[in-house]
Amino acid sequence: MTEQNISNLSHEDRVFEPPADLAANANVTAEVYDEAAADRPAFWGKQAERLDWGTPFTEVLDWSNAPFAKWFVGGKLNAAYNCVDRHVESGNGDKVALHFVGEPEGDTRDITYAELQDLVSQAANALIDLGVQTGDRVAIYLPMIPEAVIAMLACARLGAPHTVVFGGFSADALSSRILDCEAKVVITADGGYRRGAPSALKPAVDEALEKCPDVTGVLVVRRTGQDTAWTEGRDVWWHETVDQASTDHTPEMFDAEHPLYVMYTSGTTGSPKGILHTTGGYLVQSAWTFWAVFDYKPDDIYWCTADVGWVTGHSYIVYGPLANGATQVLYEGTPDTPHKGRWWQIVQDYKVSLFYTAPTAVRTFMKWGDDIPAKHDLSSLRILGSVGESINPEAYVWYRDNIGGGTTPIVDTWWQTETGAHMISPLPGVTSAKPGSAMTAIPGIAAEVVDDSGNPVDNGEGGYLVITEPWPSMLRTIWGDDDRYKETYWSRWPQYYFAGDGARKDEDGAIWLLGRVDDVMNVSGHRLSTTEIESALVSHPKVAEAAVVGATDDTTGQAVVAFVILRESAQGGGDDIIAELRNHVGHQIGPIAKPRQVMVVPELPKTRSGKIMRRLLRDVAENREVGNTTTLADAGVMDLISSGMQTAKDDD
Ligand code: PRX
Asked: Is residue 605 part of a domain?
């Protein structure tokens, strides 16, 4: 084993083939992989035909100024027209676009495509009245309510790039994003419902705007009716403006490379990066992948549990599904309000057939117990999706068995804010799937795993994940910082896009994601992946969730330190739980991977999008003062963990 290669230590040999009936009617066939590989631009040019263009493009890809791409050169289109109006024009105006489910029980609202067209046009007209012009930026800070989707589409309709800031972010996070992209208008709400109670949003906007003198208008949705401070001359109510505006608005066609939105994502260091997506390429790939990867059919009912504040909400709640004219559920609240079966109740009530969520949610449901989903009829589900991190084989099989009735295929979709749309995933009617692997690049995408010198590794070896050819929904730059764009993504191997993830290819060439390269540990000269050790821990019947970090160690360079949450059914685990878990990892992976310490904790520190903040756990493991916790979903978690760690050390 060399230092260059990330160790390949996990063992997983289960393979699930596509169900026969799904394969027989699948949108995509196996030949498409070869067809696309033979001529990628031609393949994407063909997929672009699923959109309506005001002016046809003359060239699919201009890569002459790499890494700054131009897709669908000369083409003009309007993203909102493609997501809304054209479905009405083709006779589907009565089809439901959104089944909104508010967190308070019984608070529901169905919106058809024809209604959505009116609402988006009204919002566009109201934004014009607030002075928004093509090219101006608009910040959106809303709960998961229909107005979030309407606001995004209204901006797209005007060619005013939106930047959606997750409603759970602080005033500081909001102001830094508004300042970075110089937004002129903010769209927000008085509040939203969260865990059974109204939770205010507007105060954070008011605080943020103290630092943002250039914001001239704030459009406020009345959602909860709570008392709301008001700045005359700046703030206007949605119901007094949008609801009164004309439903007539003629969408203008914009250049394919016109900016559609800026989405901020954290980097390893420094300030968040404003990832810029443009119109044509982004819409083509989000629309095609929604259709291909979820095998979307017109009568499907789709539900993605992400928040519109993340890229998943942009590509797979707003642009991908709506470009396809899909019907979807939009749910405002948390999975356990008012009870832990709320999601499965919604699946049953709306007969959801395509369901897309994150591994962290799956593990939470695993922890809560099999009996909760078992109380609901989930037989409408035909495809399950996973996104955001590797899904541990144990969670995968639990998801397939307990949500998917033991037969429903899972698509484990690898992609990033930067890639804009799915890149690596099985196709549910075409390819086999292995629990824990995102399998191979989808048609039209070229991914590779390379070593330090940029050479492809052999099957059975690990390295760094790169994308070797440009793709339509690729980020175009980091907003206002072309140099940082080049440096971050295109400098390690200038001809490849470096995703920052470690990966390995198994004996069949399937790709297994190993987490961010920054999360790779080096124990006695062996590079171990945090993901593999976490998977081994979660495969133990008493463990619900695990996070592993490398802590400095005098002897081994780094040592494995594990933080685990036990399942409720483990009832505390018993006296020997630590030894049992260390041995379990030793047995599953090998003695080298045995954690030096195992900490049983009540919670793990996570960002609001559910990613474990290993940086904080490393601080605990290395006995440092815990660093910046501002992006933590629950700031109290670190105190709980640190105090527990102290006790464990005293006991040693
Ligand atoms: O490390 C990979 C992980 O999430 C990162 C991208 O995060 P973000 O930009 O927030 O986008 C999340 C939603 C697309 C990747 O670099 N990641 C995402 N999906 C997977 C994954 N890791 C393993 N398997 C996945 N399916």
From this structure: yes
Q: By the 8 A CB rule, do 563 and 617 touch?
A: yes
Q: Which has more confidence, 146 or 629?
A: 146
| Domain with 556 in it | 540-649
Contact yes or no for 347/314 (Cβ under 8 A): no
Residue nearest to atom 11 of ligand 1 (CA): 416
Q: Cβ distance 515 to 7 under 8 Å? A: no
Specify the DSSP element, H or E, that contains 220.
Answer: strand 217-221
Contact between 525 and 552 (Cβ < 8 Å): no
- Ligand 1 atom closest to Cα of residue 386: 26
d(CA 387, ligand 1 centre) in Å: 7
CATH number of the domain encompassing residue 609 = 3.30.300.30
The Cβ-side half-sphere exposure at 147, using a 13 Å CA radius, reads 22
At residue 591, the pLDDT reads 81
- What is the distance in A from the centroid of ligand 1 to the CA of 461? 21
User: Is residue 460 helix, strand or coil?
Assistant: coil
**To the nearest whole number, what is the mean pLDDT of the chain?**
92
Q: What is the pTM of this model?
A: 0.87
| DSSP conformational letter for 458 | P
Ligand 1 atom closest to the Cα of residue 513 is 23
Using a 6 Å cutoff on CB, does residue 608 contact ligand 1?
A: no
Backbone angles phi, psi at 38, to 5 degrees: -65, -35
